[in-house]
Amino acid sequence: MNRAAPRIERPAGRSGLPLGAVVYFFIMLLLGLYFAFAAVQGPSGILRQVQLTADTADLVAQRDGLTAQVAQMRNLTRRLSDDYLDLDLLDERARDVLGLIRADELILP
What we know:
Blueprint (H helix, E strand, L loop, with lengths): L18 H23 L4 H34 L7 H12 L11
């Protein structure tokens, strides 16, 4: 007895995917779009990483500039200290800050 399994026929006028498959596909599509958006625009997304890299480069450049300024100020401070006195620098600072001049100098307006 070789009986074939009965065939299930679709009702007339109904073709395509079942409603559950369409809903499942639509939900998966929305989830995929959400995760793609979060990967690009989210708080740790690609665009944020690019922005952080640019900000880091700007801050490193600013830090290097400030380090150079600190080194220059340390040099000036050392040159005006009691241990090492640079008379030319002292003369320059006195002229600049106090507005002093020597007796043999002329002031041109």
